[in-house]
Amino acid sequence: MLYWLTELSDGGDIFNLFRYITFRAGGAFLTALLFGFLFGRPLIDVLRRKQGKGQPIRDDGPEGHFVKAGTPTMGGLLIVGALMTSTLLWARLDNGFVWLVLFVTLAYGLIGFADDYAKVSKQNTDGVSGKIRLLLGFVIAAIAAWWATFLQPEAMQMHLALPFFKDVLLNLSFFFVPFAMIVIVGAANAVNLTDGLDGLAIMPVMIAAGTLGIIAYAVGRVDFTEYLDLHYVPGTGEILIFTAGIAGGGLGFLWYNAPPAAVFMGDTGSLALGGALGAIAVATKHELVLGIVGGLFVVEALSVIIQVLYFKRTGKRVFLMAPIHHHYEKKGWSEPQIVIRFWIVSLILAMIGLATLKIR
């Protein structure tokens, strides 16, 4: 919205700053952060009054989690609210990629909100049926995948870019849309599975979003793509403003989610943020790089899949408990140890993901 202030510029005044994506990204970060600090405590108070007993705690979960009973959930409303506000204020609203990632974020956030509401109102951990959640998730992902192809250059539509290789595009034809759907749905649910300890999910999301934001900025600049031998996708640079909003809103949320958490993100936040990461990866043609940058989420999801499949086949467990962060809880690691070590892993994976821009 504020981008239109450039129309008042003669090229040498303060309004000219609004032409620069980096300046507006900084504004989006600060706006989202301020939103989190201003509305965090009032939102928590409202959630506490409305929810009463807070988020239900699994009976078969780690013993240490029972002390968290009564903690309100749906804290993702704070992140999504900060993200939407900062993006609409600072991004160019004539950019299709901005509306694409906002659509996916809000749509998945609504699915998560419905699931959280069902859990809180019924005071059980079942929530909305998993099949319904997946069905809705795939419908949203299908819309987003088709939308992304129309926004991308014709030569890149329905193609998959390979990291570490110059000018390599695999033509997936109509298989690209199902592939992109899996990326978006998989990212949303992987982040959801990771959100099991205070502060565990939000920092890796911020790290991944920041990394993808840098990639989006680079992919959207023809000079950077020529230097780095990347595929040029005009318009994706504006996604940096969106990811700056995730970082600011995420920090504002972490202020209240730091152990012991005053509020949980809930599916409202985890599904929204995971879907956003998947949508950014599809928009920038970096779907495979997301698997590196978000490697922690991949491992968390795989640990659940492996555990379920192996138990059904043998009646035995590979991990003491899945997702894998609960395995380490059972092994005696403290919650802060797990959270901070997983943050470190996320940062390392982000650096590897950024390296794919140059190693070609």
UniProtKB/TrEMBL annotation:
The chain crosses the membrane at residues 20-40, 74-91, 97-118, 130-148, 168-188, 200-219, 239-256, 263-282, 288-311, 338-357. It is a multi-pass membrane protein. Keywords: Cell cycle, Cell division, Cell membrane, Cell shape, Cell wall biogenesis/degradation, Magnesium, Membrane, Metal-binding, Peptidoglycan synthesis, Transferase, Transmembrane, Transmembrane helix. Mg(2+) binds at residues 192, 267. One of its GO terms (cellular component) is plasma membrane. InterPro entries: Glycosyl_transferase_4, PNAcMuramoyl-5peptid_Trfase, PNAcMuramoyl-5peptid_Trfase_CS. One of its GO terms (biological process) is peptidoglycan biosynthetic process. It holds the Pfam family Glycos_transf_4. One of its GO terms (molecular function) is UDP-N-acetylmuramoyl-L-alanyl-D-glutamyl-meso-2,6-diaminopimelyl-D-alanyl-D-alanine:undecaprenyl-phosphate transferase activity. It catalyses: UDP-N-acetyl-alpha-D-muramoyl-L-alanyl-gamma-D-glutamyl-meso-2,6-diaminopimeloyl-D-alanyl-D-alanine + di-trans,octa-cis-undecaprenyl phosphate = di-trans,octa-cis-undecaprenyl diphospho-N-acetyl-alpha-D-muramoyl-L-alanyl-D-glutamyl-meso-2,6-diaminopimeloyl-D-alanyl-D-alanine + UMP. Pathway: Cell wall biogenesis; peptidoglycan biosynthesis. HAMAP family: MraY. Catalyzes the initial step of the lipid cycle reactions in the biosynthesis of the cell wall peptidoglycan: transfers peptidoglycan precursor phospho-MurNAc-pentapeptide from UDP-MurNAc-pentapeptide onto the lipid carrier undecaprenyl phosphate, yielding undecaprenyl-pyrophosphoryl-MurNAc-pentapeptide, known as lipid I. NCBIfam families: mraY. This is Phospho-N-acetylmuramoyl-pentapeptide-transferase. It comes from Shimia aestuarii.
